[in-house]
Amino acid sequence: MTKVALIGYGKMGRMVHSLAEQYHCRISAIIDTASNAYPHQITAESIGDTEVCIDFTHPTAVIDNLTKIAALNRAVVIGTTGWLDRIDEVREIITRHDGALLWGANFSIGMNLFSRIVTAAAEAFDRFDDYDVFGYELHHRHKADSPSGTAIELSRILLEKIQRKTQAQYDRSEKKIQPEELHFASIRAGSIPGTHTVGFDSEADSIELIHRVRSRSCFAAGALQAARWLADRKGIYSFQDMIKEILC
């Protein structure tokens, strides 16, 4: 079994713990600053014989956590979102320590397959100017980032594949959306685990692609599969890299 340390023991950390054995992993350590039941600091003693750390903490903690984990020569799966503006810094840390990192905007296997479907659809609709493209996402009111990492990744795909769109508009707009703008809206309310919709609309018809999470367990399952996949590797990978290898 792959030995996994949980960095953060909130809802997602506990979900990962509950599914670990099902995915041939053993939780070897738990680090949690919010509880007196577990160590607060990432040290050689607190993570023990861990092979891979899974971080489900907060965007502001990612860099500090990653620096400590890489210095201890352990691989890390980053399940936290909202830190991608510091990706260059993250790459430098992993390269300096000859470490191993896997990150993803979304650890749901279904969402990553959905991204591939969106890519194929965008390539097709790029040939038909009558169709405009849009997106929106729904998440629970406690989510730390808006737009989500997944919304940003879906927008990146649409901007790359649809030539008539050159920039994403995530924020409130006090003017009409311009033809070159991709409007991708975010809503935060209640306890919604996560819904992402990408649509293609014309005067004649409308097509919508929807990924709807039923349980946060899909993210935990994906993180555990990522930990097993990363355990014997070096370098920097995205969750999509793992998906591509499995599909090939």
3D architecture notes:
- It is a single chain.
- By secondary structure, the chain is an alpha/beta fold.
- The chain has two domains: 2-107 and 216-247, 3-Layer(aba) Sandwich (Rossmann fold); 109-212, Dihydrodipicolinate Reductase, domain 2 (2-Layer Sandwich), CATH 3.30.360.
- 35% of the residues lie in helices and 25% in strands.
- It is built from eight helices and eleven strands.
- It has helices spanning 11-19, 44-47, 62-71, 87-96, 109-125, 149-161, 217-230, 239-247, and strands at residues 2-7, 25-31, 52-55, 75-78, 100-103, 132-139, 167-169, 181-188, 195-201, 206-212, 235-238.
- The strands form two sheets. It has a six-stranded parallel beta sheet with strand order 2-1-3-4-5-11, with helices on both faces.
- A hairpin with a 4-residue loop joins strand 9 (195-201) and strand 10 (206-212).
- It starts with a strand and ends with a helix.
- The mean pLDDT is 94.
Topology readout:
Blueprint: E1 2-7, H1 11-19, E2 25-31, H2 44-47, E3 52-55, H3 62-71, E4 75-78, H4 87-96, E5 100-103, H5 109-125, E6 132-139, H6 149-161, E7 167-169, E8 181-188, E9 195-201, E10 206-212, H7 217-230, E11 235-238, H8 239-247
Parallel strand pairs: 1-2, 1-3, 3-4, 4-5, 5-11, 6-8, 7-8
Antiparallel strand pairs: 6-9, 9-10
Strands of the widest sheet, in order across it, are 2-1-3-4-5-11
Q: Can you give the helix content as a percent range?
A: 25-40%
Query: Class by helix and strand content?
Result: alpha/beta
CA-based gyration radius: 19 Å
The amount of beta strand, in percent, is 25-35%
What ranges have pLDDT less than 50 throughout 5 or more consecutive residues?
Answer: none
Number of E-state strands: 11
Q: Estimate nothing, just give the exact number of structural domains.
A: 2
CATH T-level fold name of the largest domain: Rossmann fold
- State the end-to-end CA separation: 25 Å
Full CATH superfamily name of the largest domain:
NAD(P)-binding Rossmann-like Domain
What characteristic shape results from the CA principal axes? Answer: elongated
Oligomerization = single chain
Q: State the CATH architecture of the largest domain.
A: 3-Layer(aba) Sandwich
Helix tally equals 8
Q: What summary fits the major beta sheet?
A: 6 strands, parallel
User: From N to C, what is the helix and strand string?
Assistant: EHEHEHEHEHEHEEEEHEH
CATH hierarchy class name of the largest domain: Alpha Beta
What would the average pLDDT be, to the nearest integer?
94
